[in-house]
Amino acid sequence: MNNQQDQQGELKGKIALVTGGTKGIGKAVTARLLEAGAKVIVTARNQPEEANPAYHFIPADLSQPAEVVKVTTEIQSLFGGVDILINNMGANTFPGGGFSTLTDDHWNQAMQINLLSSVRLDRALLPKMLEQGSGVIIHISSTSGQFPIWESTMAYTAAKAALNAYSKSLSQEVAAKGVRVITVSPGLNNTEAMSVFLEDLAQKAGLTVEGITQRLFERVGGVPLGRMADPAETAELIYFLVTPRASYITGANYAIDGGNFPVI
């Protein structure tokens, strides 16, 4: 049996939760985990556009604490817990234009969606991982967490930076107990959410989507590979990190950005 065949069943017997798993990067991660034989649970605020009997779907808005309780209660009742937790939920839906456009509600929403939803899920599902002495938690952050764009991502950037620090701290606490915690920071991905974001920016700037995309590339210092990532490319990194082949990796923050990140 060759390596590719081995990897097709690499996660057989594992239970995984993917938040925000019906679109974009989350959808691609879900597909990759299913391909590897995992039993996958997916959460999202809205029902998927097409029903997929291959995974167990739980509708939930994880920015609400009660919804996190609902999800984790159902998981514990039906599955006992999870072996893999992909905290992919996140959004940059807050006004651009700098500090004066952001209200307390905007800041609170940014933290609830991009930080506290992950904190609450970890707190509920991590004890079972610790009990069994194994597990992997992936926090999906963003290169914005280390490279802010004040015009359009101020609240989002602050929340992702906080997620980075929290993830690192958690990794140090639980590593000796068999649980790995890793951060993945995607750059620009060609997702539905990115399309909406670019259309909104283009409308406000009086430019075409192509024009605003080029301006965004320039604003982030250029992308050496010259394009956005396909979500499946980002999902492949996330998939590798949850496999036994990444068993010595924890506490790291992996940027996957086409060479964009401007520091060593």
Automatic annotation (TrEMBL):
<keyword id="KW-0560">Oxidoreductase</keyword>
<dbReference type="InterPro" id="IPR036291">
    <property type="entry name" value="NAD(P)-bd_dom_sf"/>
</dbReference>
<dbReference type="Pfam" id="PF00106">
    <property type="entry name" value="adh_short"/>
</dbReference>
<comment type="similarity">
    <text>Belongs to the short-chain dehydrogenases/reductases (SDR) family.</text>
</comment>
<dbReference type="GO" id="GO:0016616">
    <property type="term" value="F:oxidoreductase activity, acting on the CH-OH group of donors, NAD or NADP as acceptor"/>
</dbReference>
<dbReference type="InterPro" id="IPR002347">
    <property type="entry name" value="SDR_fam"/>
</dbReference>
<protein>
    <submittedName>
        <fullName>Short-chain dehydrogenase/reductase SDR</fullName>
    </submittedName>
</protein>
